[in-house]
């Protein structure tokens, strides 16, 4: 049996990992909510961002948190370009095609990284990588705590962008009624690309938060992408608060499954939830429109 | 042969169809008319099994089919067309119709022969090998009709087969519909083109805001004050009468 | 099916059967066998994805099941490999039916179906990787005992012919599907499910039949893989690489056509080998080519290579018949 303290610690740890899942899922759900597509390249794009953080640290000596600042606009531009000039034109507006094109992109990105960086696993270390914060009897990882805070702030910021800015209103208009938005003069391909860019920018933040305590190799995105899909499906496709809650929930589930079932089976809980939610309630647990 | 008994359908707070009933005897063409949004297509979808009624029952040739799947109803002899035509775009005209024909003919040769025969009947005999996606609107309407016919229904539900056609195309297709009736198929049709309704239907039902408000021969129904009000708004019948009196 | 339907299949298979008489190098034969195994699995994917329009991103679930069933039956229960082949195929069909029942009953389609199949494959991979019954992370080794009765041959060419014969059988099966009531109904469901239902098509039954057939064929390919290489582990048998390959081949070759998966597998692996020859030891170079080809195929060649060829042929014919007319127009 496990003591309550171990279980609580595992749950809190899961909560903090979940915050990063939430960030990744945030990008995915935003793209889904507006473009109504499942971006299969999301994991590979995350891997790109993680390598970028690693390069900034290894070659330029930049702190991973600091690296987020230049990386956010960079990833935005990458995402904008991919949607505008590759995914959009190549898929002719057909859902099945988009799925295939983003799958193709993810294969290319992943293997280009493999060709450049080989399959070695890389880590970076900072002064705070292993720092802990004592909360009563519990010891919490400092960088993960920061991750939790930033994830909540970014969700809030994204919500503000969507609800308080003109660009955000245009995005929501396109999400609700593409044809109508087009009729009132909104440049739909531009809005699509901006949304895709925003989704990728979320990945830049996630990458910066992950790297102090995690590692990167060319295949790492695959591990996250299914988790992110699960979060998105669980939270309701396209719902931002759903993604945040779903991410935190999945983090806890994974952590507890890992504790009780061991590392090799830990992830299975996630996929079983994923399958169950898809089969029973494809609109997600946290509401969202049917 | 068909009895719709007190059927209702609720979508959230909206009562799309409210306690509607109708009954059909074998043979003949019956119209289902009503203003836009009256619930006609919803009623059709309930008869063909695509929408489950919230309340009421549907009987077909004496048996209760309320809970049956759409494909079972097709097997029992209920064919339908869709208001928004839905061709299998990747298939040829002949292959499209054959999908319907396969319901009663398991062999490819038999199904294809049946498809060709039906195609000729609806005037698609020369288009058999064209891709269905390349047909004109009128052609697609005929295809919709042909596919349903190929299932050899005893009851055929036609959802606005004339909508979107020009007057000469309508003139061409009316004899086709009459021909189907003459072969003994009972037809229930939703139609907006009143001239065609008057011309084809022996009897019409009028649905307005989900309720069945009138029933009878077309000429009688069209003079019914409730029907005029349903189409033209409250008080319209009285106004028309007054105007008629003033001019007379 | 008519004789005319069978001729192209017969010609292709006979030509392919002559290859081992010319090619005797082991690496080349290995490559050919592996390619044929992928082609066979891809033919399975094509039944569900191509004809049925249900894109699975997790056909590894069937491939791996086929591989594991035959390996476990032989190593743990001493069951004959040929019987294992049959049972593996049946197991794949059963797994297909169950996954199909769960997802189609819930009305999953499109991206949702793709995701749920992917998740099933991952669950199998994790389980096979963790359970001791499946050999865990160490995988399973089928004992080397070269006897035809054990489905092991000292000549690689024999195995090549065996796989080729099965590819031929599935080509015939696919051609039969194309010409049958089941096939017509399956394509109708792909094109428009509601319209198909209105015409009396039991869409659930049709889709279940398709996924069971599809799972069976792909499991057969997984079983052959295990039998040829005599070793499997969870990341080989249930890995996402095989899901991707099985879907790429038909899409590149011509989705929903009889020859598409075979043409696609040949093209992909041909290109992959070429890339390896040119780029040398760069890891993942073949996959970069695969991904690029996939994007290009979706962007410029719907219907894959076969679709492209057909369009070229039509254009060629069109020029012959249309030519004179245009001239006379110009003359006026």
Automatic annotation (TrEMBL), chain A:
<dbReference type="Pfam" id="PF02653">
    <property type="entry name" value="BPD_transp_2"/>
</dbReference>
<keyword id="KW-1133">Transmembrane helix</keyword>
<dbReference type="GO" id="GO:0006865">
    <property type="term" value="P:amino acid transport"/>
</dbReference>
<keyword id="KW-0472">Membrane</keyword>
<feature type="transmembrane region" description="Helical">
    <location>
        <begin position="12"/>
        <end position="33"/>
    </location>
</feature>
<feature type="transmembrane region" description="Helical">
    <location>
        <begin position="98"/>
        <end position="119"/>
    </location>
</feature>
<dbReference type="GO" id="GO:0022857">
    <property type="term" value="F:transmembrane transporter activity"/>
</dbReference>
<keyword id="KW-0813">Transport</keyword>
<feature type="transmembrane region" description="Helical">
    <location>
        <begin position="220"/>
        <end position="237"/>
    </location>
</feature>
<feature type="transmembrane region" description="Helical">
    <location>
        <begin position="268"/>
        <end position="288"/>
    </location>
</feature>
<dbReference type="InterPro" id="IPR001851">
    <property type="entry name" value="ABC_transp_permease"/>
</dbReference>
<dbReference type="GO" id="GO:0005886">
    <property type="term" value="C:plasma membrane"/>
</dbReference>
<feature type="transmembrane region" description="Helical">
    <location>
        <begin position="65"/>
        <end position="86"/>
    </location>
</feature>
<dbReference type="InterPro" id="IPR052157">
    <property type="entry name" value="BCAA_transport_permease"/>
</dbReference>
<keyword id="KW-1003">Cell membrane</keyword>
Automatic annotation (TrEMBL), chain B:
<dbReference type="Pfam" id="PF12399">
    <property type="entry name" value="BCA_ABC_TP_C"/>
</dbReference>
<feature type="domain" description="ABC transporter">
    <location>
        <begin position="2"/>
        <end position="234"/>
    </location>
</feature>
<dbReference type="GO" id="GO:0005524">
    <property type="term" value="F:ATP binding"/>
</dbReference>
<dbReference type="InterPro" id="IPR003439">
    <property type="entry name" value="ABC_transporter-like_ATP-bd"/>
</dbReference>
<dbReference type="InterPro" id="IPR032823">
    <property type="entry name" value="BCA_ABC_TP_C"/>
</dbReference>
<keyword id="KW-0067">ATP-binding</keyword>
<protein>
    <submittedName>
        <fullName>ABC transporter ATP-binding protein</fullName>
    </submittedName>
</protein>
<dbReference type="InterPro" id="IPR051120">
    <property type="entry name" value="ABC_AA/LPS_Transport"/>
</dbReference>
<keyword id="KW-0547">Nucleotide-binding</keyword>
<dbReference type="InterPro" id="IPR003593">
    <property type="entry name" value="AAA+_ATPase"/>
</dbReference>
<dbReference type="InterPro" id="IPR027417">
    <property type="entry name" value="P-loop_NTPase"/>
</dbReference>
<keyword id="KW-0813">Transport</keyword>
<dbReference type="Pfam" id="PF00005">
    <property type="entry name" value="ABC_tran"/>
</dbReference>
TrEMBL record, chain C:
<feature type="transmembrane region" description="Helical">
    <location>
        <begin position="6"/>
        <end position="23"/>
    </location>
</feature>
<keyword id="KW-0472">Membrane</keyword>
<protein>
    <submittedName>
        <fullName>Branched-chain amino acid ABC transporter permease</fullName>
    </submittedName>
</protein>
<feature type="transmembrane region" description="Helical">
    <location>
        <begin position="54"/>
        <end position="73"/>
    </location>
</feature>
<keyword id="KW-1003">Cell membrane</keyword>
<feature type="transmembrane region" description="Helical">
    <location>
        <begin position="85"/>
        <end position="104"/>
    </location>
</feature>
<dbReference type="Pfam" id="PF02653">
    <property type="entry name" value="BPD_transp_2"/>
</dbReference>
<feature type="transmembrane region" description="Helical">
    <location>
        <begin position="124"/>
        <end position="146"/>
    </location>
</feature>
<feature type="transmembrane region" description="Helical">
    <location>
        <begin position="210"/>
        <end position="232"/>
    </location>
</feature>
<feature type="transmembrane region" description="Helical">
    <location>
        <begin position="158"/>
        <end position="177"/>
    </location>
</feature>
<dbReference type="InterPro" id="IPR001851">
    <property type="entry name" value="ABC_transp_permease"/>
</dbReference>
<feature type="transmembrane region" description="Helical">
    <location>
        <begin position="287"/>
        <end position="309"/>
    </location>
</feature>
<keyword id="KW-0812">Transmembrane</keyword>
<feature type="transmembrane region" description="Helical">
    <location>
        <begin position="244"/>
        <end position="267"/>
    </location>
</feature>
<keyword id="KW-1133">Transmembrane helix</keyword>
